[in-house]
Amino acid sequence: MTHSIVIPLFNKADYIIETLESLVMQTKRPDELIIVDDASTDDSLTIAKEYLQKQPLFCEHCRVEFIELAENGGPGNARNIGLERAKGELISFLDADDLYHPYLLSIANWKFGAEKLDFMILNIEFMPGREVYPDIDALKKYLTPISEDLYEVKDPLRAVTSPHFVMGVGSNVVVKRKWLQSIRYVVNSTLHEGIDFWYRVLKHILAQTQANIGLLTGNYLRVREVKGSLSRKIYPNYKEIELPPVFSRYKNSKDINDRLLVGMIGRRWYAHSFASLCSVKQKLFFALHYSYLLPQLIVYSIIRIML
């Protein structure tokens, strides 16, 4: 199957060569690489172009396209623009500081074909700490072994709303492009926009067909923990912290999985935001301002215990 990779690029001059090298070293090269430069203010774009110019064999077998945006629109916007240009049967997004294992594209191609997958989630190894997520033991009731390193995900929407599951972090999904025709990332959102996007994609697939959803373990995606990245930003004022898009999208939903998603993300968002504020005063203001959310998060915790 043909495979397109979209890289949103913004100020990753220190990492982009290593990321691209992880693609050049693939045992099955991608068929298409689309790099969307989101108005970088460093040398990221120049470095990427110069590196790929030195890889003629890779470029001979992979269509490479650079898209240069005049204004920074955020990673969701960059991914949307790259997605519009992609033509591969499979598509994945790779952050410009993360790495693919050399066998990932080959294994993805094999698993999608042999197991007739529609959607495959990758487990993650964080760098440099080497923590691995998700915790397979905590998810046993949702997983059925299919083949080496691959599990079928049963009751997928319930599984991905578990606090032990990780989807949409480090763009850890490979999917058939046909399922993305009508779904796009929320623009101008920087927290949990990946989880929101992939949950909507998964709901769309399951509404259309008896889909095969897989979880690939084996640490084929390495996600770099970069100080100063959007997910590790320190906020001087609580008013700068935005609510995740799932809050407004599903606040009135009666669907239990939607409600579980809001609760799961709500707990992560609340803890992360509280820790990201730089003063005790701002933490107090944050807790008071969002005190109305606490009953919902408590109810979520109780429901999860009962499931």
From TrEMBL:
SUPFAM superfamilies registered for this protein in UniProt: Nucleotide-diphospho-sugar transferases
Limits of the Glycosyltransferase 2-like domain: 4-106
CDD domains associated with the record: Glyco_tranf_GTA_type (cd00761)
PANTHER family: GLYCOSYLTRANSFERASE (PTHR22916)
Gene Ontology molecular functions: hexosyltransferase activity
UniProt-recorded name of the protein: Glycosyltransferase involved in cell wall biosynthesis
Record-linked InterPro entries: Glyco_trans_2-like, Nucleotide-diphossugar_trans
Organism: Mucilaginibacter frigoritolerans
Pfam families: Glycos_transf_2
Keyword terms: Transferase
